[in-house]
Inverse folding.
């Protein structure tokens, strides 16, 4: 199984760089789907809730009509078609609203703004499901283990929220953990008051029931996973240089094998990092960071 997580993910920039987004998220996926299939391998490809227009009044099923509102969503939908039509038993796994203890994401941005600003305004009319990246990783491993039929699958955490609800929860949970010293007022605002280059679906909750029935990965409410992730922010980091080297690689393998993401046995860590990669800890444990062949 080949797992394709690379993508052009700058949603707003994609509006002005459509060609680039199409090249990476659509055309390249077609090339990859054909190459992977001719090598006798299956392809698991990540996609997004942004393939939907957000007009549904219930959670989106994998087979529901797509209608992307943005260049990013359109390019990702193109990639999905290649995986479904050109790969042998290709798997499209859609997810949404992803955050983790590392990398650029909504939770870390909110924590920074809550430290820097006296008040925040956050959009309250876009509804989705905040989703912990480590949970997606577990679901991916679950799918690889099961080897399900080709097709479209959905995975997010459980429940739903607006970005405003999510921001309020982040602040509350961070205060309890001492990650913030004081609360700032958070004001709910409509999307119209926070214009972005790309249009986003107003409602993009994904129905994950079919995938949950298939894989052993635990599906948890988003707030539960938010707590685990914030706990992880308080745990120590281990920085590894030479993560692709003999000892470094074995250290990373050991870490993978001994965490809840440990279904990663057999992963070659050199495949996990192109330049600088951060692997999220399981919450109670460590966050391991390494960079292939170079010092951080
Ligand atoms: N984050 C979300 O909220 C979210 C929601 C729904 C779906 N998804 C999907 O989940 C997948 C992973 O997203 P992510 O959040 O992990 O995105 P990300 O943090 O932006 O990571 C994207 C990865 O793609 C690589 N990449 C970009 N352009 C490339 C190219 N031309 N050649 C090779 N590698 C390239 C990047 O490498 P460099 O860093 O070295 O450039 C990076 O490792 C994507 O398919 C995305 O559409 C994400």
């Amino acid at each position: 199984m080949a797992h394709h997580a690379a993508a052009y993910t700058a949603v707003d920039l994609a509006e002005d760089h459509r060609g680039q987004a199409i090249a990476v998220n659509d055309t390249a996926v077609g090339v990859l789907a054909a190459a992977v299939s001719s090598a006798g391998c299956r392809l698991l490809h990540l996609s997004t809730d942004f393939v939907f227009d957000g007009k549904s009044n219930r959670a989106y099923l994998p087979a529901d009509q797509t209608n992307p509102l943005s260049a990013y969503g359109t390019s990702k939908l193109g990639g999905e078609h290649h995986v479904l039509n050109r790969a042998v038993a290709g798997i499209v796994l859609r997810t949404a609203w992803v955050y983790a203890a590392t990398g650029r994401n909504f939770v870390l941005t909110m924590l920074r703004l809550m430290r820097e600003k006296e008040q925040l305004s956050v959009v309250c009319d876009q509804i989705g499901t905040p989703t912990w990246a480590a949970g997606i990783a577990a679901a991916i491993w679950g799918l690889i283990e099961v080897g399900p039929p080709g097709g479209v699958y959905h995975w997010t955490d459980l429940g739903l929220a607006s970005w405003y609800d999510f921001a309020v929860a982040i602040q509350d949970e961070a205060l309890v953990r001492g990650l913030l010293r004081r609360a700032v007022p958070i004001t709910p605002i409509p999307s119209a008051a926070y214009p972005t280059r790309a249009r986003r679906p107003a409602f993009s909750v994904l129905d994950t029931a079919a995938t949950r029935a298939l894989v052993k990965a635990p599906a948890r409410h988003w707030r539960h996973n938010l707590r685990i992730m914030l706990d992880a922010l308080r745990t120590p980091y281990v920085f590894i240089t030479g993560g692709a080297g003999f000892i470094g690689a074995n250290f990373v393998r050991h870490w993978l094998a001994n965490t809840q993401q440990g279904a990663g046995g057999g992963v070659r860590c050199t495949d996990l990092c192109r330049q600088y990669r951060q692997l999220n800890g399981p919450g109670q444990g460590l966050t391991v960071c390494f960079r292939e062949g170079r010092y951080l």
Observations:
- Residues 260-287, 290-296 have pLDDT under 50 and may be disordered.
- The chain has two domains: 2-234, 235-296.
- Residues 33 and 86 are 6 Å apart (CA to CA).
- The pocket of NAP is lined by residues 5-9, 24, 46, 48, 76, 95-98, 103, 274-275 (CB under 6 Å).
